[in-house]
Amino acid sequence: MLKIDRFYDARRELRKVLRQTPLIPAPRFSTYADVYIKPENLQVTGSFKVRGAYYKIATLSDDEKKRGVIACSAGNHAQGVALGSQVNNIPAKIFVPSTAPISKVEATKRYGAEVVLIDGIYDDAYAAACAEVERTGAVFVHPFDDDDVIAGQGTIGLEILEDMSSAEAVVVPIGGGGLASGIAMAVKTLNPHCKVYGVQAAGAPSMATSYHAGIITPSSSVKTFADGIAVKKPGELTYKYCSEYLDDIVTVSDDEIATAIVMLMEGQKLIAEGAGATALAAVHFNKLPIQGKKVVALLSGGNIDVTILSRVIHRGLVTSGRSSELNIELLDRPGELTRVSTIISGLGANVVSVNHTRGNVHNDINACFLQIAMETRDFEHFNEIRAALEKAGYSVN
Hints:
This protein is α/β, with parallel strands linked by helices. It is 43% helix and 20% strand.
């Protein structure tokens, strides 16, 4: 059984390579709670995963190190294993799903590990890694279902309580559950009164489903841009620990995650990947009973592929009412576009594009449509503009 002593041992070992990330106030994320961020996106390798991976490798015997290590990962665990192997001078072979961001794959290679791409998602890479362990006798470094890995991740819990002993709630992203297991066990052991909540992407809810069902319940499929937590089935150990130590598990949509990423960029000047922003999404969208509490939300990683960042930003702006569209029916005559633009600009919005089309057989013969894309402050601002246009006599859809 995992004991708190191992968490402290992991912390001593990890001091050789780790950055101790600070707690950063984040008032924009909630008007009803005192929110702080633990920014593990600033960690070595860009995520918390280096903690568990490095500690696991450091605890291997000399004989095990000679045999080398094998791992499977969507990208962040891969980098942690690769760094740990590089520092300890042992060979590493890592199986990565082909859907993993190229940036994570290339970063893993730069640490000297051999990377094998496998078609499918994490679970397919896991099956391939297990087969390779069976064939070669190398040591498997599991990304979450391993006591040493969990102890390494749990060092975050020690740091949170050392920096803020008065914390009343800690919010943690969940994929396979290693991070949540470690943090929850550390926090609950040292301060049983502090609540610990887990957050999953709604498109990959296996731990949330299992937690509430009282039995491990795999998801038939996963669909989320938060690749770091796109896991079909939680681990045996992590399910046990999460069931025992977590106070609840909730889910957030991809749109809510995207909104949190935009808020982190604008308000905190921090870059988060999809998995990394789930805890803050849950806080911002009021998914948890944390009113009036001092809350620490973990930003677990920042290794987002820049090729999808613009799409994530756009989705986040739409979800928060910062980017919006109006479809306006009006008469096709001189001055109408100027009139519409004057109303919109007078209310402080910025028009970014206009698309003009003729009316159809159901409209007046001289009717047309304007599709206007705007930058607005929020949904209230959008509704104010819509109401002003309707008051001016325009039909707005």
